[in-house]
Design brief:
By secondary structure, this protein is of the alpha/beta class. 36% of the residues lie in helices and 18% in strands. The protein is built from 9 helices and 13 strands. A 6-stranded mixed beta sheet has the order 1-4-3-2-5-8. Strands 11-10-9-12-13 form a 5-stranded mixed beta sheet, with helices on both faces. A hairpin with a 3-residue loop joins strand 9 and strand 10. Helix 1 runs parallel beside helix 2. The radius of gyration is 20 Å and the shape is globular. The structure holds zinc ion. The site of zinc ion (ZN) has 6 residues, from loops.
Length: 337
Amino acid sequence: VTGGGSTVRASDAVGIGVDIGGTKVLGVAVDSTGSVKAEAREPTPQIAPMGEGAEDVADAVAAVVTDVRLALGADAERLPVGVGAPGMVDRHGVLRYAPNLQAATGADLPALLEPRLAPARVIVENDANCALYAEHTVGAGRHCDDLLLVTLGTGIGGGVLSGGRIVLGGFGFAAEVGHMMINPSGPPCPCGHRGCWERYASGAGLGMLAREAAEAGRLPNAVALAGGDPEAVRGEHVTQAARSGDEAAAAVFDELGWWVAAGLANLTAVLDPARIVLGGGLVGAQDLLLVPTRRAYQELVEGSTRRPHVDIVPAALGEHAGAVGAALVAAAGGLPA
Ligand SMILES: [Zn+2]
């Protein structure tokens, strides 16, 4: 737990936000500008079979909120709590389906969290929609009402702002962009289908592309960093090799950027965004990823020389965007829809 200043007071904070990620549950308290006043994290519980880990996930969220409240001190229990969950969150906050958090599939998160977090009001929304709200109000999407946000993490999340309104769809499931199928004979996805965009353009995709290159003998430096076994090569190894000037490792990021751009070009054909914000854990490698993504996007988007330029920018709030957005959504009383 870290306090954001020497005199952190609950009165400075307007809400607490929690982002349930594929590997960690991140909680923050923010002030009205989105500035983080306190922060806590827990590993995401994953071991239960489908639908049987809802209580464990709720307990992890409650533990993170408790730590954030302790850092804030008196009165923190009155702050509203927003929770961003990965996957198909319906309009009542029920997590209908979560390919990357199968244990919590079907969880009625508001019903599980309200008793644990009483007396606070609890709002549950899709994690990427929370990130979109944060980036639009205080981040890289300010002053842009036609915005596409894509989070590249364990999987891929998406959020769409069109004409200044967040697109929720008929049931609340809009912008599940990670499960657009882009290769019918591609690798299997945890969602049960094949060749989803997030198999290629996520943290998991980087690992897969790196292992393919390593097994073909193209990544000796990354293999050395992984202890000599090509099958042990992970995203962090190819990232480290690329940063130290290894051209073969940089070529893996060119490939990753092509896959990111392929999905962004498809989404552009549907949505015509004026700006694209990339968030999620992979944005930590933005120095390696952004240039090849922008280059490939120009090649792949329809009518690229005959349309206004679309900026592709990193999330200003980095990997905190989802948690900060969840806190701001809670403070606002819900997503504006
Ligand atoms: Zn899928």
